[in-house]
Specification:
heterotetramer, A alpha/beta, B mainly alpha, C alpha/beta, A: alpha/beta, 6-stranded parallel sheet, 6-stranded mixed sheet, B: mainly alpha, two-stranded antiparallel ribbon, 77% helix, 1% strand, binds adenosine-5'-triphosphate, binds magnesium ion
Chain lengths: 313, 324, 514, 324
C-alpha cells in the first residue's frame, strides 16, 4: 500500500544540505519518539541535518524558549517547533522570523502567527471522536470519568473539554461524573482509576487524554475484574495500548499518525527553504482504531520502527 | 543545643485548642484524624478494597522513604531515588526480555545498588556533599534510563512477572507485603545492628564517631547502597505494577520520600528519626493522596490542601515535642 | 569584704525549674551584691548552669521570681537580660565559628555607619574590638575567624565579649575550665578591677583554689536545692566540699605507685608543618605520663597525631616494639588505643544519642555477634561506668544533649574507658567535673595502670599533673621543652619551662572577606 | 565542624593530575575550562549574540539562586522558589490584564514577598523546619497558580511589558541587567549590613546569635521574604520572557537554585557562602545548558553529562579547599 502521508508528497532532494532545528516538548514517550523518527528519517531522505532538542516536558516553556534562542544563535536554516505551550513560545518565534529563519509549527500550536505553516491533527477533533464513540457505545446512557492528563497542557485541556462539550450536546444520556488531571504516566493513571472506582460504584466509561494514563486505567479495570464492563477510550497507540486493545480492555483509540506529522513537518521546511509554495495549514488524518480494524492499521505512520532510537549525537 | 533552647525556653505554642489537644499525641493523631475525616466523607474509604489499594499505592513511597531514612539519619540525603526508579525499571525490563523474570529482577535490583554505590563512593571517598552527589545522580540516572530505552516504554513483560505488582496474599497485595517486610527489616537493622548504631552516630556527630573508631567512609558508602537497594526493589515492584519498563517513572518522588521522613519526625540534619516515624510520614502522604481523590477534590486544589496539611501535621507534631 | 550589707543588685527567690524526668531547681534563692564575687558551688548536675540560664533568659522558670535592685524583673529572652545589664559567659561556647572575632564580640550590637540603612561600620568594629582585646592583653587578631582559634582563645574571646557589654552583673560559668595559668591570671586581674568598679559577679567553678582566692560569698547547691550561703573567707575548703558532696572525700589524689613495665608507645620526631616540631616521647606499661604546657603549646595536636586523627609530615610511631602506621583513628583503636578528646562538644559527645549509646560506641563490637547487638549486655556494661563515674542522669536512654556540662564530660570519659584499650590518651580529662568525680576519675586511672595499661594525660591543672603523673613532659610551641620525674617536678619549675620566652599564642589566620 | 576536621586531618585527594592542577584554582577554573571547551567545539559559542543569550537564559536562575543564597546561608532552605515563579507569573499576568503593566508587575512581586512572608512566619514563629515549610509552599503555590489560571496560560499581555524580557541596553539584555543589579545589591546587603551579618550568624550558630540578643525570628522571616522577593522578580521577568502568565513555570528550578549555591561553594548547612560563590555556580549550570545545545549533544546524553559535571566541578573545588 502507499506510504502513509503520501498526500503531502516528498519534495525532490534539495541542492544543498540544510540544517534544521527541531524542538519537541519531550522525547520520553512513543508519541514524540515516533514523531522524532519522522523528522530524522525524512531529513535523511532529503539530505538535511537535524538538531533535535527536547525541553524535558510541557512545563519547561522557558527551556524551549532558550533552546530556540540557541538554535537562532547557531544559525540553523529553519526551525520546526512543537510548542510546549501556545503563548509561551510567541517571543522566540517572532524573533526567528525577524532573523529570517522560517518556523514550521507541528502538532502543538504556538500562539504566534509568524509561522510558515501549522501541521497537526486537531485536539478538538480527538476529543469529539472519543465522545462520539463513547456516546454510541453507551447509547443506553451511562456514567463516565475523565483522566485528562498532565495539568496545564493545552492537549489535556482541549481534548477533555471537547469531549465533554460533544457529549453534552449529542449524548445527554451519558453523564460525566468525575474528572482529574494527573502526571501522564501509567503509574498515575493506575492510581487515579483505582481511586475513581472507589469513589463511584458504577463507572461505564473512561476517557483518556493520553494513552499513558489509559494503560494504567486498563490495569486498574483488569485488577478489579471489570474487563469489558468499562468502555475505555484513549488517544494514540503505543505498544501496550495495542496489547490492551486486542485483549478488549481498551475499547477504542483515536490515533494520531505521529510519524506522518514528522515527515510533513520536514517536507514543509524543505519546500519553504527551496522557495516552494507551502499551504498555511495541513492536518494529518486521525485513525479510529478498535478491535475490529486494528489489524489494518498501517503502523509505518504511527510508530517508529522496532528498536529505533532518537539520534544520540 | 538550639532545639534544647527552643524546646525548654519558649512557652508552648498558642494556636487553636483542637491543635493543642492533638499536640498531646502528635503525628499518630494526625493520621487518625485524616482517616476518620475521609471515612466520614466517603464510606468507601474504609472498604477493604480501598484500604488495600492505599496500602499498595504507598508501597513504592514506603520503600524509597526507607532508603531515605538511612541517608537522612546519617546526616546525608539521597535526591536520586526518584530517577533510580526509572533507571531500575528500564534495566529490569530490558534484562527480563532477554534473561527471563529472575534475571530481570536481579538486574534491576543490582542496578539500584550499583548506582547507590557510586553515590556512596563519591560522597565518602571524594567527599562531595551528599546533596550535590545525589543531585548529579538524579540528573544522570534519568539520562541513562532515557538513553537505554530510547524514551520508549519497554512492553511485553512475561505475565508471571506481573503478580509481584498485582498479586494478593489473602487481602494483602504483594507490594504491601514487600513494603511491610522492608519496614521490619530496616527497623531491625537500625535498632539492633552495629551498622544501624553507626548510622545514628555518623548523623549525630561525625567527628566524634571517627574518633570513636567508626570507619565512617565505609559505612557511609553502605548507607547509599542500602538506599539504592530500596530504590531497586521499588523500581522492580513499580515496573510490575505498570507491566512495562518506563523511563519516566518516579519524578519528584525523592521530594516526597524526604518529606515522609521529616513529616514523621526525622531531623533533616541527621541523627534523629527512625523507621516508625517514617511510616507515619508515609501514611500521612498516602492517605491524603487517596482520600482527596475519593472526596473528589480537584487535582489543582489537592495541591493546596496537601501543601497545607504537610505543614500543619509537622506543626502539631512539634507542639507535642515542646510540651515534654 | 564590706561589713555593712549593701542592697543586693540581684535577688532570685524560690526559683523552680523542671526538665523531663528532672527537678533541676527546687526553690533556690540567690542574692548578689554590687562589687561582690558570688561563687556558685555544686556537683555536676546540681543546677548551677540552669540557675544562671534562667537569670540570662535562656530558660523560663517554672516558679519563683527575680528582683533587680528590689524591683521585679521579667526575663523572657537573652535580650531582656542584656537590657537589665546582665551579661553571661556560658559554660558551652557560644561564638559564631564562621565569623571573625570582631563580628562575634559585637554580634547583636554592631556599630553602624548608617542607622537608616543598617550599614555596619567595619572600621569601628575592628578598632573597638582591638581595644577590648588589649584590655585582656590578648594578641588575637580582631579579624581572625573564630573557627580557626583554639578552644582557649575562643574562651578568651567570650570573656572579651561579655566585658565589652559594660554590664552591672557578669555571670561566668566555669570560665577557667579551658584556660591555663597565664590566661587565668589575666582574667582574675580583670575580675578584681570590675569588683572595684562595683560590678557584681556570679562565678561558677569546680576549682576550689580559685574560689578561695577570688570569692567573697559562696552559695552551695545540691540536687537542685540550695544548701547554704557562706562567706568564703570564713569557710575552709574541706567544709565547702562537704557542703557540696554531702560526705567527706578521701585524699585528693589517690596516687598509687605501680611497677613500671616495658615500653608500649614510642614516638620519634613527630613533625607536622607549623604545628609539631620533632616531638619524641616514650610511654611505658603502668605509667602515667603527664603533659604540661600553655594553651597553644600543641598538646592536643600531639595527642591527635598519636591517635591518627591528624596527618604527620614526618616521624614514626612504635607500638609495643613494632613500628605502626596509624593513619586514622580506626587504626589506633584496633591497636587498642583510646582518646578522650579535649573539646567535648565537637569531638566528644554525640549529643542526640543516649548516654548508653555514647558510652558503648567505641566498644560496640564487643556486644555484637555477626553484626547484631546484644542490647541487654550493652546496657549492663554502660550502667557500670555510669554508676562508677556517678553520671547524674534519670536513665541511660536520656539524650546526652540534656545532661549537665560536667556529666557530659563524664560520658566522654566513660566512652574512652569502656573501650578494650590499654594505651590511653587523656586530653584535659577532668575539665569541668566536680571534685568528687575527679577523685573517681583518678581512681579509675590508677586501676587502669594497675591492670597494666599506660596513660598519657594532658592537663592544664598543674596540681593534677603533679599529683597523678609518674613523669611530666612540658611542651612549648609544638616542641618538648623539658622533662621532669615525679620527684623533681614542682609547679615553679614546670611553669618556668612552659613559659620560657613566653611565646605569643597567636597565629590564627585573618578572615577571608565573606 | 566535620569538614574543618577533614581539611586538617585528611591527605589531599589523589585523582587525575589534571584535576589536581585545576584543584589549585577551583571553581573559576572549571568555568573557564567549560567556556574554552565549548568555544573550541563551536565558534558560535563566543558570538556576542550567543553570550547575550546565555546571560539572559541564566538571569532567572541567578535571581532565585540569590534568594536561595540568603536562605541557605541562614541554615535554612527555600524549596518553594520554583512554584513561586509560577504563582507570581499567574498573579502578575492576571493583574496586568486589569490594572495595566505597572499594576501587574507590582502584584507579581508582592505575591512573591507575601508567599515568602508566610514561609518565614511558619518557620520562625511556628518553628516548622524550613524544609517542610517551604516544601508545603512548593506544593500549595503550584496549586494556587493552577487554580487561579484554570491550568491555562494567560495570554494577551501588553506589548510594552515584553521589553523587560526581550529588550536590550546596548548588547545587554534587560534580564541580564536586572540580574546584575540584583547580584550587586545582594552582595552589599550580605557584606555591609547588619541584616547580612545576622544571616551568617544564624546560619553558623543560631544559639549563639540568640544568646547575643539577635532577634533571630524577625531576621529569619526577613530571609524568606527576601527569597520571595527575588522569586517575585524572577517570575515577572520570566512572564515577560514567555509573554504570558504560566502556571507550570519553574518546576524543579528550586533544585537548580540550591545546586548553584552549593556548586559555588556554599555550605548546605549554612554560615558559609556568598553572592560571588553563587554566581560561579550559576555560570557552571548556565554554560553547560547552552554549550551542550550548541555542540548538539543529544538531550538524553545531556542529562548524563550535566549530572557528571556538577559532581566533578564540586570535587575539583573541594580539592582546592583541602589543599589550604
Ligand atoms: N600560635 C598559634 N597559632 C595557631 N593556632 C594556635 C596557636 N596557639 C594556639 N592555637 C590554637 O589553639 C588550640 C589550643 O591549643 P593546642 O590544643 O594546640 O595546645 P594545647 O596545649 O592542647 O591547648 P589546650 O591547653 O587548650 O589543650 C590549638 O588547637 C590551635 O588551633
Ligand atoms: N535542656 C535540658 N533538658 C533536660 N534536662 C536538663 C537540661 N539542662 C539541664 N538539665 C538537667 O538539669 C540538671 C542540672 O543541670 P545543670 O547544667 O544546671 O548542672 P550544673 O550544676 O551546671 O552541672 P555542671 O557542673 O556539670 O555544669 C541536670 O540533671 C541536667 O541533666
Ligand atoms: Mg554547668
Ligand atoms: Mg589542647
Amino acid at each position: 500500500s502507499a506510504e502513509p502521508g503520501a498526500d503531502y508528497p516528498q519534495p525532490p532532494r534539495p541542492s544543498r544540505p540544510y540544517t534544521i532545528g527541531v524542538l519537541v516538548p519531550h522525547l520520553s514517550n512513543p508519541h514524540f519518539v515516533g514523531q522524532a523518527y519522522g523528522y530524522v528519517d525524512e531529513a535523511q531522505k532529503l539530505g538535511a541535518k537535524v538538531i533535535l532538542l527536547e525541553a524535558g516536558g510541557y512545563q519547561y516553556v522557558e527551556k524551549q524558549v532558550s533552546q530556540m534562542e540557541d538554535l537562532i544563535a547557531n544559525k540553523v536554516d529553519a526551525i520546526i517547533l512543537v510548542a510546549t505551550n501556545g503563548p509561551g513560545t510567541v517571543g522566540p518565534v517572532e524573533h526567528a522570523a525577524a532573523q529570517g529563519i522560517p518556523v514550521i509549527n507541528c502538532n502543538v500550536m504556538t500562539a504566534s502567527d509568524k509561522v510558515v505553516t501549522r501541521i497537526r491533527s486537531d485536539d478538538e477533533v480527538i476529543g469529539r471522536m472519543q465522545a462520539d464513540f463513547m456516546g454510541k457505545a453507551l447509547k443506553a446512557g451511562g456514567k463516565v470519568v475523565l483522566l485528562r492528563g498532565a495539568p496545564g497542557t493545552s492537549w489535556a485541556e482541549n481534548r477533555g473539554n471537547a469531549f465533554k462539550k460533544e457529549l453534552a450536546e449529542k449524548f445527554p444520556g451519558v453523564k460525566v461524573i468525575g474528572e482529574q488531571y494527573s502526571q501522564s504516566t501509567p503509574a498515575d493513571g493506575l492510581k487515579l482509576m483505582e481511586d475513581f472506582m472507589q469513589t463511584f460504584p458504577q463507572i461505564d466509561g473512561a476517557f483518556n487524554g493520553a494513552d499513558t494514563t489509559a494503560i494504567g486505567a486498563a490495569q486498574a479495570v483488569l485488577a478489579a475484574g471489570k474487563k469489558g464492563k468499562v468502555v475505555i477510550t484513549t488517544t494514540d497507540f503505543q505498544a501496550d495500548t495495542e496489547k490492551f486493545l486486542r485483549e478488549g480492555v481498551i475499547t477504542a483509540a483515536v490515533v494520531q499518525q505521529t510519524v506522518v506529522i514528522g515527515r510533513w513537518g520536514m517536507r514543509a521546511a524543505i519546500n519553504r527553504l527551496e522557495k516552494r509554495q507551502v499551504p498555511p495549514s495541513l492536518s494529518t488524518p486521525l485513525l479510529l482504531v478498535t478491535k475490529d480494524n486494528v489489524q489494518d492499521v498501517d503502523m509505518r505512520g504511527v510508530r517508529a520502527p522496532e528498536g529505533w532510537k532518537p539520534p544520540t549525537r | 543545643m538550639t532545639e534544647a533552647y527552643l524546646q525548654e525556653s519558649q512557652a508552648p505554642p498558642r494556636g487553636h485548642p483542637v491543635l493543642r489537644v492533638l499536640g498531646k499525641i502528635g503525628m499518630p493523631a494526625v493520621v487518625v484524624m485524616l482517616a476518620v475525616f475521609f471515612g466520614a466523607m466517603n464510606p468507601n474509604f474504609w472498604s477493604v478494597r480501598n484500604l488495600s489499594n492505599v496500602s499498595r499505592q504507598i508501597s513504592i513511597l514506603s520503600l524509597i522513604s526507607l532508603g531515605q531514612t538511612f541517608a537522612i539519619l546519617s546526616a546525608g540525603i539521597d535526591l536520586s531515588v526518584g530517577s533510580l526508579i526509572a533507571l531500575v525499571s528500564v534495566v529490569c525490563a530490558q534484562a527480563m526480555l532477554s534473561f527471563g523474570v529472575a534475571g530481570g529482577i536481579l538486574a534491576g535490583i543490582l542496578a539500584g545498588c550499583a548506582a547507590g554505590l557510586v553515590n556512596g563512593v563519591v560522597i565518602a571517598k571524594a567527599r562531595v556533599p551528599a546533596f550535590i552527589a545525589t543531585l548529579g545522580m538524579l540528573v544522570a540516572a534519568r539520562g541513562v534510563a532515557l538513553t537505554l530505552s530510547g524514551g520508549l516504554p519497554i512492553a511485553g513483560l512475561p505475565r508471571s512477572f506481573l503478580v509481584i505488582g498485582a498479586g494478593y496474599l489473602g487481602p494483602l497485595p504483594f507490594p504491601t507485603l514487600i513494603a511491610a517486610v522492608a519496614f521490619v527489616a530496616a527497623h531491625l537493622v537500625l535498632t539492633r545492628t552495629v551498622f544501624g548504631r553507626y548510622v545514628y552516630a555518623m548523623g549525630s556527630n561525625e567527628e566524634a564517631a571517627i574518633l570513636s573508631g567508626v570507619d565512617v567512609p565505609r559505612y557511609k558508602i553502605l548507607v547509599y547502597v542500602v538506599s539504592g537497594l530500596f530504590a531497586g526493589i521499588a523500581g522492580v515492584v513499580l515496573t510490575s505494577r505498570v507491566v512495562s519498563g518506563q523511563p519516566t517513572l518516579g519524578e519528584v518522588q525523592e521530594l516526597y520520600a524526604i518529606a515522609a521522613v521529616v513529616i514523621g519526625g526525622g531531623k533533616i540534619t541527621g541523627g534523629v528519626g527512625g523507621v516508625g516515624k517514617t511510616l507515619l510520614g508515609v501514611l500521612v502522604l498516602g492517605i491524603l493522596g487517596n482520600g482527596l481523590n475519593l472526596i473528589q477534590v480537584s487535582s489543582y486544589v489537592q495541591n493546596i490542601v496537601i501543601g497545607a496539611i504537610i505543614v500543619v501535621a509537622v506543626y502539631v507534631d512539634l507542639a507535642r515535642e515542646r510540651r515534654r | 569584704m564590706p561589713a555593712e550589707q549593701p542592697r543586693p543588685f540581684l535577688e532570685m527567690r524560690r526559683i523552680v525549674k523542671r526538665f523531663p524526668g528532672v527537678l533541676a531547681l527546687d526553690g533556690v534563692d540567690l542574692d548578689v551584691r554590687p562589687g561582690e564575687v558570688h561563687v556558685l558551688l555544686g556537683e555536676n548536675g546540681a543546677g548551677k548552669s540552669t540557675l544562671i540560664k534562667i537569670l540570662s533568659g535562656v530558660h523560663l522558670p517554672d516558679g519563683g521570681e527575680i528582683l533587680i535592685e528590689g524591683s521585679p524583673a521579667l526575663i523572657r529572652r537573652p535580650r531582656d537580660a542584656q537590657a537589665l545589664g546582665i551579661s553571661t559567659i556560658y559554660q558551652e561556647f557560644n561564638l559564631v565559628p564562621d565569623m571573625t572575632v570582631a563580628e562575634n564580640v559585637f554580634l547583636g550590637r554592631e556599630p553602624l555607619s548608617s542607622r537608616r540603612l543598617g550599614l555596619v561600620d567595619r572600621r569601628a568594629l575592628l578598632r573597638r574590638t582591638r581595644e577590648h582585646l588589649d584590655e585582656l592583653k590578648l594578641d588575637i587578631p580582631a579579624g581572625a575567624v573564630v573557627r580557626r582559634l583554639g578552644i582557649a582563645q575562643q574562651q578568651m574571646v567570650e570573656i572579651a565579649k561579655a566585658l565589652s557589654l559594660q554590664s552591672r552583673l557578669i555571670v561566668m560559668d566555669e570560665p577557667t575550665a579551658v584556660l591555663s595559668a597565664r590566661e587565668i591570671d589575666r582574667l582574675f586581674g580583670v575580675i578584681r578591677q570590675l569588683r572595684q568598679r562595683g560590678v557584681a559577679i556570679v562565678y561558677i567553678s569546680h576549682r576550689l583554689d580559685e574560689v578561695k582566692v577570688l570569692g567573697d560569698r559562696a552559695t552551695v547547691l545540691r540536687d537542685g536545692a540550695k544548701v547554704r550561703t557562706v562567706s568564703v573567707a570564713d569557710t575552709p575548703v574541706e567544709e565547702l566540699i562537704r557542703l557540696m558532696v554531702g560526705r567527706e572525700l578521701g585524699e585528693k589524689f589517690p596516687k598509687v605507685e605501680v611497677a613500671i613495665g616495658e615500653e608500649v608507645l614510642r614516638a620519634e620526631g613527630l613533625t607536622r608543618r607549623g604545628i609539631l616540631h620533632g616531638v619524641s616521647l616514650r610511654l611505658r606499661r603502668g605509667e602515667i605520663l603527664g603533659i604540661a604546657g600553655l594553651v597553644g603549646s600543641r598538646r592536643t595536636e600531639l595527642a591527635r597525631a598519636l591517635f591518627g586523627a591528624d596527618p604527620l609530615d614526618s616521624g614514626r610511631i612504635v607500638l609495643r616494639g613494632k613500628p605502626a602506621r596509624i593513619d586514622r583513628p580506626g587504626r589506633a583503636i584496633e591497636e587498642r588505643m583510646a582518646l578522650v578528646p579535649e573539646d567535648r562538644k565537637q569531638h566528644g559527645i554525640l549529643s542526640s544519642m543516649s548516654v548508653k549509646e555514647n558510652v558503648t560506641l567505641g566498644s560496640i563490637g564487643a556486644f555484637s555477634r555477626g553484626g547484631f547487638l546484644d542490647l541487654a549486655r550493652e546496657k549492663r556494661h554502660a550502667r557500670e561506668y555510669a554508676t562508677s563515674l556517678r553520671i547524674a542522669t534519670p536513665d541511660l536512654d536520656r539524650r546526652v544533649l540534656y545532661l549537665s556540662g560536667g556529666n557530659q564530660q563524664k560520658v566522654v570519659i566513660a566512652k574512652g574507658l569502656s573501650s578494650r584499650a590499654d594505651i590511653f590518651l587523656f586530653d584535659e580529662p577532668t575539665r569541668g567535673i566536680d571534685v568528687g568525680a575527679k577523685v573517681e576519675v583518678y581512681r579509675l586511672m590508677i586501676e587502669l595502670v594497675q591492670r597494666g595499661a599506660a596513660i598519657l594525660m594532658i592537663s592544664s591543672e598543674l596540681p593534677e599533673l603533679l599529683g597523678m603523673s609518674d613523669r611530666i613532659l612540658v611542651m612549648r610551641e609544638g616542641r618538648v621543652s623539658g622533662e621532669f620525674t615525679r620527684g623533681e617536678a614542682t609547679e615553679e619549675a614546670i611553669l618556668d619551662c612552659a613559659l620560657r620566652g613566653d611565646a605569643p599564642v597567636a597565629g590564627a589566620r585573618e578572615a577571608p572577606p565573606p
